[in-house]
Write a structure and sequence with these properties.
Blueprint lengths: L6 H11 L13 E2 L2 E2 L35 E6 L4 E6 L4 E7 L4 E6 L5 E6 L4 E6 L4 E7 L4 E6 L5 E6 L4 E6 L4 E7 L4 E6 L6 E5 L4 E6 L4 E7 L4 E6 L5 E6 L4 E6 L4 E7 L4 E6 L5 E6 L4 E6 L4 E7 L4 E6 L5 E6 L4 E6 L4 E7 L4 E6 L32
């Protein structure tokens, strides 16, 4: 890599990619340590989404994992105030759902029935009924909601509010906030352990990850990581958390048994989104400044491939079978599709203006699409050789 990304550049990236800017000069700014956010990155011309279908989707949905089931990718479009729905079998947009101002990220419930979208400009979360393809509720949350995650049991939705330094907890049945958790400076990334016992929150402004016990919403600890942590990905066995550090240009590897960093992997410039394959053997990192995706081998914790993509890649998600990785490109208004067999781009999908977060319908019961044998919770990730000697 070419070196750490300057804080001023990170502020500009955050302003353009993560925080919605309101019109008429009354805008909010991203919060990063030691700098003031620069003006937002100008959005490129909007590329019309193919087959735009507002409201109900143009394809029938089936139960995730059932006969004829299809994995759908939900792409938040910051400047279009909409979510594009992409059929991952055909790589075509099959629906467009209008949402609130400045949609930034998406999350899908374990059963695939509901999609949650953070509206960063409206301080709300839009709730989409996936079967009807329309918003059925809008939930007020904290200031500038940036990231959203659904608990493994589907009962709670957690929203990182980057400007109010807290996490809103939504009751998924009643669609209302039932708790607020104070965390570090500028929370962005959110990720659960597979068993739901802990929630990890990346705080971009304080360079640390907070560990939350969801049962009582208590802070269990903090983990210092690299500079500007923005996204998290947990291995399927729950043994590791991969944290992308936007400013320092690396990824911190956190051991969840001890909640401490056990490795640091240098990747491309400005790592933002991060995702792990269902077998846990590779992690994909979208480098928003370097315009590429780094592929990390989780056994060796080193980059084994770099995949060029479009301009300003940001969000990233993996299909349930692990065969493809979807990467949003903020400046190109496109999504690149990477085939994981050869780690190269196999398709591009035109979407709305300013695509940011992306989430894909999970496999049946939240289980990985691959039938690869996995170690028990807390074991070595991805079937890596176990170290010699006693375990800590």
């Amino acid at each position: 890599m070419s070196g750490p990304v300057p804080r001023a550049l990170v502020a500009s990236v955050l302003a353009g990619l993560l925080v919605y800017v309101q019109p008429a000069g009354a805008h909010k700014t991203a919060r990063t340590t030691g700098t003031t956010a620069a003006p937002p990155v100008p959005a490129g011309p909007s590329v019309p989404a193919p087959l735009p279908v507002p409201g109900p989707l143009s394809v029938p949905l089936s139960v995730p994992g059932g006969p004829g089931a299809r994995a759908l990718a939900y792409v938040a479009e910051l400047h279009s105030d909409s979510v594009s729905v992409v059929d991952t079998r055909t790589n075509r947009v099959v629906g467009t759902v209008p949402v609130g101002d400045g949609p930034d990220s998406t999350a899908v419930t374990p059963d695939g029935s509901t999609v949650y979208v953070t509206d960063s400009g409206a301080d709300t979360v839009s709730v989409i009924d996936a079967h009807r393809g329309e918003v059925v509720a809008t939930v007020p949350v904290g200031d500038e909601p940036s990231r959203v995650a659904v608990s493994p049991d589907g009962r709670r939705v957690y929203v990182a509010n980057v400007a109010s330094d807290d996490v809103s907890v939504i009751d998924a049945r009643r669609n209302r906030v039932v708790a607020t958790i104070e965390v570090g400076d500028a929370p962005l990334g959110l990720a659960f352990l597979p068993d739901g016992s802990r929630l990890y929150v990346a705080n971009a402004g304080s360079d640390e990850v907070w560990v939350i016990g969801p049962r009582r919403h208590r802070v269990l600890g903090t983990v210092p990581v690299g500079e500007g942590p923005t996204a998290l990905a947990v291995t399927p066995d729950g043994s590791r958390v991969y944290v992308s550090n936007l400013t320092s240009g690396d990824v911190s590897v956190v051991d969840t048994r001890r909640d401490e960093v056990v490795a640091t992997v240098e990747v491309g410039d400005g790592p933002a989104g991060v995702a792990v394959l269902p077998d846990g053997r590779r992690v994909y990192v979208a480098n928003t400044v370097g315009d590429d995706v780094s592929v990390i081998d989780t056994c060796r914790n080193e980059v084994t491939a770099t995949v060029p993509v479009g301009e300003e890649p940001n969000g990233i998600a993996v299909t349930p079978d692990g065969s493809r990785v979807y990467v949003t490109e903020f400046a190109d208004d496109e999504v690149s599709v990477i085939g994981t067999r050869r780690d190269r781009v196999v398709a591009t999908v035109a979407v709305g203006a300013g695509p940011t977060g992306v989430a894909i319908t999970p496999a049946e019961s939240g289980r990985p699409g691959w039938s690869a044998r996995r170690p028990p919770f807390g074991g070595e990730p991805g079937g890596c050789p176990r170290p010699v000697g006693p375990r800590p």
